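forwarding from the other thread:

> can someone predict this with PBG?

sure thing
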Amino acid sequence: MSLLHHFNNAPQAGFPQLRLRRMRRSAELRSMVRETRLDPAHFIYPLFVVEGEGIRREIPAMPGQFHLSVDELVREAASAFAEGVPAVLLFGIPATKDPRGTSAADPQGPVARAVRELKRELPRLLVVTDVCLCEYTDHGHCGLLDGQQVDNDATLPVLAETALAHARAGADMVAPSDMMDGRVQAIRARLDQEGFDRIPILAYAAKFASAFYGPFREAAQSAPQFGDRRSYQMDPANRREALREVQADLQEGADLVMVKPALAFLDVLREVRDEVTCPLAAYNVSGEYSMVKAAARMGWIDERAVTLEILTGIKRAGADLILTYHAREAARWLA
Ligand code: PBG
């Protein structure tokens, strides 16, 4: 029996010797034994880029988040970076959509242009790009269709070309969110082939088919035009399957893995944390953000306290990195 085991099982003092309140008596004592600390260094700030110039249009379902043209996006990212947020995640809303999501890999598309501009203006800002087709297909599904079905293998080369276009534009990291099987492998192979072996892949490994993406789909104009995403995103009821998804993505070459959404899946986050050694990200998604904003507007909750408690909970559950629309505000509050 190990020494540690022996001590953990030794009889412990009970009340009145044991008083856990002793270490809560002052702010200084509480701080000294605090187990989890939020640091904006771990935040990734999602941003929506649109065509045009001088555009900063608030997204109705996501108060405080905007559709930004490239010039305005650079300003927003510069402010966030100055406030301590080291990274952004880019979503593009293209001018044209077609069945094959052709514009996703367009070197002149909003994401590629935004990446080039951001890296020129803010070379130390980390620029992560979302790799998925749902914003670029006219049917709104994350892959190519074969009839009414999403065709897994036909989608892979399109995703790989999209990731390559982002890497060529200067992205620091690519983040596939489509949930096709084999996409990490396909993207890794294509990037390596073209000399981008240095670019890490952040895999949306355990991404659940969630109603919490509602506000995002309005923001990204990416709601599926028929059916739903349940044939590719995970069933929210499944825990063990999440571990298999994570293992599969790591085998295919993912450098970091993600659990998404965060709040209804904190148990999954903890379980993944206990199983893998790679960096783990959690996506605090649009619906989670908008619920806080709505309740705060009604005067029903203390927005700042609730936001920091949520982010702390995500960190405590095991996330190293948090993708959150609260990033900029939270960085300010933590300063
Ligand atoms: C695209 C994608 C989605 C989100 C991130 N990437 C939407 C979806 O899968 O329908 C959701 C992000 C959010 O809700 O904040 N596949």
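Residues 36-334 form a domain with the TIM Barrel fold (CATH 3.20.20.70). thats all i got for now
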